[in-house]
Amino acid sequence: MAQYRVLIDANDEKGLVYKVSSIFFNLNLNMVSNSEFVDRVNNKFFMRSVVEGDIDAAALRKSLVEILPKKSNVRVIEPKNKDIVIMATKEMHALGDILVRHEAGELDANILAVVSNYDILEPFVSKFNIPFITVSHEGLNRAEHEEKILKTLEGFENIDYIVLAKYMRILTPRFVEAYENKIINIHHSFLPAFIGANPYKQAYERGVKIIGATAHFVNNNLDEGPIISQNVIQVDHAYDWQDMQKSGRDVEKVVLSGALKMALEDRIFVYANKTVIF
Amino acid sequence: MAQYRVLIDANDEKGLVYKVSSIFFNLNLNMVSNSEFVDRVNNKFFMRSVVEGDIDAAALRKSLVEILPKKSNVRVIEPKNKDIVIMATKEMHALGDILVRHEAGELDANILAVVSNYDILEPFVSKFNIPFITVSHEGLNRAEHEEKILKTLEGFENIDYIVLAKYMRILTPRFVEAYENKIINIHHSFLPAFIGANPYKQAYERGVKIIGATAHFVNNNLDEGPIISQNVIQVDHAYDWQDMQKSGRDVEKVVLSGALKMALEDRIFVYANKTVIF
Amino acid sequence: MAQYRVLIDANDEKGLVYKVSSIFFNLNLNMVSNSEFVDRVNNKFFMRSVVEGDIDAAALRKSLVEILPKKSNVRVIEPKNKDIVIMATKEMHALGDILVRHEAGELDANILAVVSNYDILEPFVSKFNIPFITVSHEGLNRAEHEEKILKTLEGFENIDYIVLAKYMRILTPRFVEAYENKIINIHHSFLPAFIGANPYKQAYERGVKIIGATAHFVNNNLDEGPIISQNVIQVDHAYDWQDMQKSGRDVEKVVLSGALKMALEDRIFVYANKTVIF
Amino acid sequence: MAQYRVLIDANDEKGLVYKVSSIFFNLNLNMVSNSEFVDRVNNKFFMRSVVEGDIDAAALRKSLVEILPKKSNVRVIEPKNKDIVIMATKEMHALGDILVRHEAGELDANILAVVSNYDILEPFVSKFNIPFITVSHEGLNRAEHEEKILKTLEGFENIDYIVLAKYMRILTPRFVEAYENKIINIHHSFLPAFIGANPYKQAYERGVKIIGATAHFVNNNLDEGPIISQNVIQVDHAYDWQDMQKSGRDVEKVVLSGALKMALEDRIFVYANKTVIF
């Protein structure tokens, strides 16, 4: 029997759970799991159900759209591997964590390629039989370089998510708009602290006692996109910024991989520059 | 408009969410929040909804019972302060945390009394204008002492929860059965590690690097009741067991107060010696 | 036998541990514990020893000053209760946590008074037989109000630390200078995120997945003083800002009380707007 | 200039820091860092200094031994890559984490080989150009199988540490004695909870709200060796034991790699079935 993930966000009104569940019931679908949330401030309803039964996705979606308020978003997704591209620069830890999970069969994803502005990580990525594409930025301005990357990405039939696994260049609005809510970045601080360059150095100079990492969708404001996941570790006066950087890697990779997992399992809603995660 | 907490646990079958939400819809009730969980292993369905509308609790409950599978448990609870009794022995931190929260208006509870086998805490409790009842165990065997405590408790019209805020005596099956799933204890270790007496000393001797605390309902097997909440802190070789005990107090009190909050908000289901918490 | 805490910070040079420990050895003092740290970036040496033996503090200090580099700071402190004043506004949790610890004998401190700009907390504080002093700000400008508080504080013979347990007014440079490195504040965010007013509201609006608290010494830049201690808890989309505020209280109080403990035990060095904590 | 790690454990007596630091001073060595701890219960002194200067290790050690109490342990270690062997069975995450760190140059170690009782991980390990040695246990009893592994290990000139990265077979006393305090294991629970097989299943059945991982040296009692490092994550009722297992992997790998790092940096003392870690 087919299984579907049904994701609904709508303006809230009385009876939405009843209406949706009646569709499931009438189509003889079994609800494997179900989560709801109502944002009272914005009067928004969010629901994620996993259902199984004998029907196709289009028919299910049609039935739901008919009974839901206008302008509702309804996604009916058949669970399968998503197509992802990873972008990286020089660091191996976050990238490596994803590659090992992929190798271990833990990720519901096809890694189409790793794209980098350097060729440093090529030998490493090649071990995993994953295409490595170097798009050097040398001699190019930001727009020209991005143009080449966009061209490269357009070569793929489908991209569900682009994972910035310590890709150390800022993306322009043009790039971000092309992949809205599809670009997941790991920032090496607990945002909104230490936006921008070298957050560990900033953290060291501020004398903080915890450092962290933040996975977020990328939008047009640097490090200000919707946050998916965050975590921290304790540090003390004996850490210089390089020590913080080393210790921070463990948080970065776990937070990024965790956020990617949520995305691959279609657990994330983006709304009002925030995320609702079931 | 009245607001109710509806808690349902039932054998799982297709359409339960539909059936329940149709009752809410037909009675013109608004679902303020809703959580569900299906335990696949035991085929058990759990649901907690907060609804508001113009109906009384008994009528709502009756409607739900009619459409749910036989042997379902249906509770319709009107939010109000619960009646609790706190039992303590000599330590002030867990008790004090609850008393301060109560004073600050953070607890949806009436504290009927603090009952202790010593009078040590009486001056402290008296500051808060809460009755303090000493039931000394001196010269009594366990059964006799408990008999006196049970008598004391029977003096109260209603007790929703008994909170053991570091009450250092073991309760007999008779006592536990009289207040099944109503006694919340804080154990000063991350259970099931270090069951029994002086867990900090056990932890010190084992050389652990984390210590913790566990809030659980009390059943007939010492420290083996359903776990509500746990948390831990890091320690190192420089901690002797008294240091662990001191540091552990902060975890104990926060974990116990957190578990009590869940209970007062009717968020806990007990099933198969575990808890489902929404 | 007398016990002393010896705290030294000095420009680093070869042989400092040798020189200090030779003084201890020659004076027949036993080192109960010892911690050192060298800040390589600033070439600064920090040392905290607990020693016991038959000598007075002044003699010990004199011996140490003679062998250490010029401009070294040498403190020889006899462990005893410190004199503290708590300042609060309306909230009870952080204040209450300190009062209960004090009552339980956990704090090496005499609480001289609680000073507040409102009288709201007076009934609560009075339970603990601690003087409560209301210095209302009504009808006064900031300078005038602070002047009255400073006058009040000058009435005490000695103040080792002023603890701002959710005192919701900003202190002027004049006040801060009068009690340099003696004022400990709890800020309800993981600084430097969410400086300023209502950090929980800011956190909610940013959609963070962790919230925290920071205990720090107060300096002339709002929320930018040397950080003593920080901690965080996880939140999710279901928390509105009031929920964050409620949950945050548990972190605030534990972080503030922990920082106070470090201060009372003379474990903190302040240097370059940071803390070294042994 | 040469740099040395000096590790001393001795029966405590007055003047040890003075004596050791006087040796350093007289040999014109600079103390780069220094940590001490006195275990009052067992009257044991522990010290780890990093010194730099113009002397050889043997001469330094000789000087120290002469002035320290008899039966003191004195190690003078020149920092260099340690030789390690990894043992694994079928799981990739803990092994992969170490291999990626090694590849990234984060580990001060030469990985001599990965030894396994299955050949499942061979393709994965081979990517990293590290010898993979299968020693199948099929048709062999425990003693015979271990004999073959010991023979394999004896083929290496030197082994500083054996890392059990989810090696799922129990080692006999004979094996353990051959590599005393050199075998680091990751156990997938917060020991001493859930000793033995399938701790995640045990944790699920107990209904815990936190799960964890423990890195420890292996001794002759299953899962009872000296603990190096532990960490935990929160779980809830929605986790079945396979979910716990999946989530637990992130803790396991980070805890194991962290413990290995401590070992490679010579930061661990083993004493009284515990560890002192600087």
Keywords:
homotetramer, 278 residues, alpha/beta, Alpha-Beta Plaits, Rossmann fold, 7-stranded mixed β-sheet, 4-stranded antiparallel β-sheet, 32% helix, globular
What does this structure look like?
- 4 copies of one chain form a homotetramer.
- The first copy, chain A, is α/β, with parallel strands linked by helices and 278 residues long.
- The first copy, chain A, has 2 domains: 2-77, Alpha-Beta Plaits (2-Layer Sandwich), CATH 3.30.70.260; 82-277, Formyl transferase, N-terminal domain (Rossmann fold).
- Helix content of chain A is 32%, strand content 31%.
- Chain A is built from 8 helices and 13 strands.
- In chain A, the strands form 3 sheets. A 7-stranded mixed beta sheet of chain A has the order 7-6-5-8-9-10-11, sandwiched between helices. A 4-stranded antiparallel beta sheet of chain A has the order 2-3-1-4, with helices on one face.
- The first copy, chain A, is globular.
- The relative contact order of chain A is 0.13.
- At the A-C interface, strand 11 and strand 13 of A face strand 11 and strand 13 of C.
